[in-house]
Amino acid sequence: MDKVIKNGTIITEAESFITDILIQHGKITALGNMDDRLDNAHVIDAHHQLVMPGAVDVHTHIDLQAGQFHTTDDFFTGTRAALCGGTTSVIEHLAFGPKGCSLHHQIDAYQQRAASLAVGDYGLHGVIQHVDESVLREMGELVQEGITSFKIYLTYNFALKDDDVLRVMRRANELHAVIAVHCENDALVNYGRRQLVDQGKTAPYYHAVSRPNECEAEAISRMLHIAHMADDAPVYIVHISTAEGVQAIREARARGQKHIYAETCPQYLLLTQDCYYQEDALKYVMSPPLRHQSDCHALWQGLADGTIDVVATDHCPFNYRTDKQAGNGNFTKCPNGAPGIEERVMLLFSEGVQKGRISLQQFVKLLCSAPAKIYGAYPQKGCLLPGSDADLMMIDPNASSEIRIHALHGAVDYTLYEGWKLNGDITTVLSRGDIVYQQHVFTGTPGRGRFISRHVTI
Length: 458
Known about the structure:
By secondary structure, the chain is of the alpha/beta class. The chain has twelve helices and 19 strands. Helices cover 31% and strands 23% of the residues. The strands form three sheets. Strands 1, 2, 3, 4, 5, 16, 17, 18 and 19 form a nine-stranded mixed sheet that branches. The two termini are 38 Å apart.
C-alpha cells in the first residue's frame, strides 16, 4: 500500500516547510499536497512533528573481534538499535583480519554475516592493514563493487607507516575513493602506556593520561600533510576529540586543501575525563579518550562553524559486567570502545538543536546529508527527494524522554548516558517505506536490511 506522511514539518539541510510526502514501493515519489491520494494509502499524521531523513551513521563497529573480545552486538541487534534511534543506514568499519589477508577477506566475512541478520541497511568500509601491489589492485576492485572507502590506522597492531600511508592515499586519489583515518601517534601512545604501567599507574584515569591531546593533534596534522603530498587526496579524520585537532583541520583548509572531512562523536561533545574518576570508569575506556571541557566547547564550535562535517558514533559495545572488567586493575587490558548507536540522534537534537548550539538544518546536514554525500550514498540515502529511499525519522520536539538502558534495543549492558533527560522524542522511523519503529515499538525483522552499494563522489 502507498503511504502518505501528512502535515509534517519537513527539515532538510537547507530549509523547513510543511507539506506531505508520498511513498511508493519503498521510495519517495513526490512532495506536495496529497489530499487526492489518501483514499488508497496508509496515512501517517505528522502534525506538530519534524520529518527528517533517516540518519546515517558512517562509523560503527557493530560486529568486531578485538583480540579476545567480541562486541556484544551482531548485525541484528546493532541495526535494530540504530533504527530505534532514528538511524536507518550504517557504514561499518571492519575488524582486522589475519595477517597478510586480502582486502576481500573481511568484506566477504561481513557480507555473509550481515545478509541474514541486518534489519537496517548497511555499507562496509574496506580495512587496509598492510600495503603491497595486491592490496592496491584490490582497492580498485572493491570500488567497482560499491565499497568506495577504506580505513587505515596510525596506531594499533596494524598501524601503517607513513610511506605506506602515502601509497594508499595516492591510489585512493586515482580511484576517487575516501580514506578514513584513526589519528593517534602510535609510538607516543605506547611509550606513555609503558611508562605508566611501570610506575604502577594502572587505574582507568591513566588511560586518558597515556593518550594526551598532542598524540591526536600531531597525527592529524601529519595525516593532512601526507594527503596534501598525494595531490590533495580525499581524507576523512574520524572521531576528533581535541581542540588542537579541530584547529589542525582549519589550518589545512586555510592552506587550500579541499578534500578534508572531519568527524566527531557525541561522547566527545558531552562527556569529559572527569568520568574516569567514577566508580564505573571502565565504561569510558575508549580511544581516543574523553578530554577536557574546553575540548568539548571547541568541538561544538567546530560543528557550528562548519569545521566538523559529521557526527557519527564509533559504536563499539563491550559489556561492562564482563568484558570491561578485564581492565580492572590495569587499564591496558580493557577492551577499547563504548556504545552509542541508539542514543546519538536524540542527544544531538536535545543538546544541540534544543539548546541553540546548532540549527535544525545543521542537525540534518551533520547526521544525514553530509555523511551520505561524503561516502557516496547520496541521494539514495540522507535526503527527502523524489527517487530517494523512503528512510525517514519523525521527532516530536515538544515531548520529553529519558535514556535508560532497559529501554534501549542493543545487546550491551550499559549506556554512557543513563538517566539523561532529553527534550524531544522519536515517534516513528521508516526504512525503505516500512514502518520499523513507532511509539516505542520495534517491528523490523532480521534479514530485511540491504547492502548499500556506493559510488565515488570526489
